Amino acid sequence: MGRTVELAAPVAPAPPSVRVLTKHGDTRLPPATMPDYDAACATYSWTDAMQGELDGLPNGSGLNMAYEAADRHAAGARAGHVALRCLRRDGTREDVTYAQLAARASRFANVLGELGVQRGDRVYALADRVPELYVAALGTLKFGAVFCPLFSAFGPDPIRARLDIGHGSVLVTTPALYRRKVAAMRDALPALRHVLLIAPAGAPDARIPNALNLSECLERAGDQFAIPPTDPEQPALLHFTSGTTGVPKGALHVHQAVIAHHMTGKLALDFHRDDVFWCTADPGWVTGTSYGIIAPLTNGITSVVDEGDFDPERWYQVLQNERVTVWYTAPTAIRMLMKAGAELAHRFDLSRLRFIASVGEPLNPEAVLWGVEAFGQPIHDNWWQTETGGIMIANFRSMDVRVGSMGRPLPGIEAAIVNHADIGVEVIDEPGVQGELALRPGWPSMFRDYVGAEARYRGCFVDGWYLTGDLARRDADGYYWFVGRSDDVIKSSGHLIGPFEVESALLEHPAVAEAAVIGKPDPVAGEIVKAFVALRDGHTATDDLRLDILGFARTRLGAAVAPKELAFLDELPRTRSGKLMRRLLRAREQGLPEGDLSTLEAGAR
Amino acid sequence: MTAADVRAVLLRELHRIAPEVRPETLDPRLPLRDQVDIDSMDFLNFLIAARRELGVDVPEADYGRLRTLDACVEYFTSRRPHAEPAAQPDRK
Questions:
Q1: Is the Cβ–Cβ distance between B7 and B80 less than 8 Å?
Q2: Which residue of B has its CA nearest to A128?
Q3: Structure confidence at residue A3 (pLDDT)
Q4: How sure is the predictor about A2, in pLDDT bands with cuts at 50, 70 and 90?
Q5: Which of A202, A283, A341, A577 is the most buried (most CB within 10 A)?
């Protein structure tokens, strides 16, 4: 493997400071799905992709994500191929073939029908990465309801906000998660009509009022389900993400997003028929759904589903024992593996591993190069968002890697760097200039709404561009380079965290008068959530109080969202109009110049 | 330092990372992360703190062996610098 990748002298016109990993002489098998990037872009069309790669529902009755992911394979030569290889926490594994997956998803769809769920209703999942989660996703899509996965490490507050906003009517979860995070607020969720518990049939701990045992429901249901006609524009997936202000945003995706899931998996992740693919993301985040559920299945390959938590040695065992060929992971995980050292990787037989990609936040150059040291191949960074539904910009198998760059736009994707001023959007053609990254709307997996917040949705589109909120620049050869966020959203371990959601929880603590939350740079997580708190009169800033507030926030928000650090301030910096100046707190935290403070309240300087 | 002392240090550091955890509800024989809501960063920070407080170097490759509280106690107790079986007075 190592011989196909070498560190070359930068070739003009890449800026001299840029390191390039060239791939000339890549004779590995199988050949790249996209051997010539420019040629692919020149002739690409989404319509051709749809017609050439996907089947559509029988009799021309539309396009359904679950049909493309499971049913069409179950009805053909792939029926006995392993679709999901589920690795359980207890060390056991369960293989689910395409035929079994399609049948179980049909049972789930029948359960929804028997419960009186309507098409378009929202079915939420709050569970670890267990087979039932994937069955629920595909069954919901078959039925024509909307699937909304939540991250199981969320605390009750984020769960409740997301169920509220999306009017969740069904929740698939486990008895333990239900008891810990949902039961106490069930009465406050009138839209939530059904709770389905993932537990063995007859399990005593699943005997909970107003909840059903999912296994018992599935056993009773039939394993045949005729997918109703599905309009390609019918809503399919709901993914929550965070903005600087206000409540979480529910990005709605439609069934034809499957064209982008499929094609981006094929082109950006280089899927081939015999691949064993491992996406380490949880379906509670968009990556874990688009690439942890849909894309590998539409491509008919085997997808590894690991219930366990991150652990360097165990992860290498998974890569080795499951003979993973394509691996899609995140910078935080890669940096944790780096800490464990390349020698640990060398102890395992990873000879099957032929393509590694990363997403979530920019992959620092050291991590890209470490991939060569540890695995004999570079790690391919790519970029996309919850709103884009699929990979938009990527380092491709057939393309040299400019270390630290997010790569080039997918075929079919038009990207630009723009200047967004009050008068409108101005495209910056000159290379190397920083601006906001924008995409031309029209790709199949573009979000179609923020549920319940249409004005906010419309605000994302200006002068015919979707504005991503990410700052970037493009070099003379069309490679894009991430610069930062244009807002105060925190990116921790690749996940977006809205400061407002965290601040709101902190303000519920009786001692807290004011709260501001920022992303503090962190060598492993990219950023960690740090809170600044001003106390109400009568409370003293002690270490015990600090821990009490942190514990309070963790109980409400969950470990993934709650602050990792908390500092007391007498007063928080605000503009004259009262707006929190998180930017100033961030600058102070990093020891940077604080910028123009002229609009700041005098007392808080 | 006895195993009980090591356990006390570990619980104190766990409290600093996840103050909401009530030690009396933990089963020390079961994986910690199955019982409490701590993420990978928290767990890493816990081990870093334990390392610092107990003066024991923990290679990252050993992290996988430290899933339960009992396993942590055993690991750190047996690797304390100059750890002698019994009869040695506790250093603070």
A1: no
A2: B34
A3: 37
A4: very low
A5: A283
Q: Using CB atoms, pick whichever of B20, B33, B61 lies closest to residue A340.
A: B61
Q: What is the ipTM of this complex?
A: 0.85
pTM of the model as a whole: 0.87
Please give the structure tokens belonging to residue A32: 């790249």
Minimal CA separation from A156 to chain B, in Å: 12
> Contact at 8 Å (CB) between A264 and A240?
no
- CATH number 3.30.300.30 given to A492-604: yes
The confidence score (pLDDT) of residue B89 equals 46
Q: What token pair was written down for A274? A: 């015999």
Query: Considering chain A, what is the average pLDDT of its residues?
Result: 92
The residues, any chain, with a CB within 8 Å of residue A108's CB and separated by 6 or more, are A135, A136, A138, A139, A140, A142, A143, A218, A221
Q: Into which CATH architecture does domain A414-485 fall?
A: Roll (2.30)
The answer to whether residue B40 scores a pLDDT higher than 90 is: no
Q: Is the pLDDT confidence value at A605 over 50?
A: no
Side-chain half-sphere CA neighbours of A49 within 13 A: 25
Query: Which residues 6+ apart lie within 8 Å of B12 measured at CB?
Result: none
What is the dotted CATH code of the domain comprising A2-394? Answer: 3.40.50.12780
CA distance A169 to A147: 11
A409 vs A11 pLDDT, higher one = A409
Residues A407, A418 contacting (CB under 8 angstroms): no
Whether the pLDDT of residue A326 is over 60: the answer is: yes
Would you say residue A198 has pLDDT above 80?
A: yes
For residue A419, CA distances in Å to A8, A74, A126, A339, A541 come to: 34, 49, 40, 39, 44
Q: Helix B40-54 crosses helix A331-340 at what angle (to 10 degrees)?
A: 30
Domain ranges of chain A: 2-394, 414-485, 492-604
Residue A319 sits at φ, ψ, to 5 deg, of -60, -40
Greatest CA span in chain A, whole angstroms? Answer: 72
Maximal CA-CA distance, chain B: 39
Per the model's pLDDT, the better-predicted residue between A353 and A582 turns out to be A353
Q: Give the pLDDT confidence of A227-278 residue by residue, as tens digits.
A: 999 999 999 999 999 877 778 999 999 999 999 999 999 999 999 999 999 9
Q: CA-CA distances (angstroms) from residue A251 to A385, A488, B46?
A: 10, 19, 35
Give the nearest partner residue to A551 out of B20, B43, B60, using CB atoms: B20
* Span A386-393, average pLDDT: 98
Residue-range domain boundaries for chain B = 3-79
Nearest to A559 among B16, B42, B64 (CB): B42
Kindly report which listed range (A14-18, A261-265, A446-450, A557-561) carries the lowest average pLDDT score: A14-18
Interface test with B, best of A311, A338, A339 (most B CBs within 10 A): A311
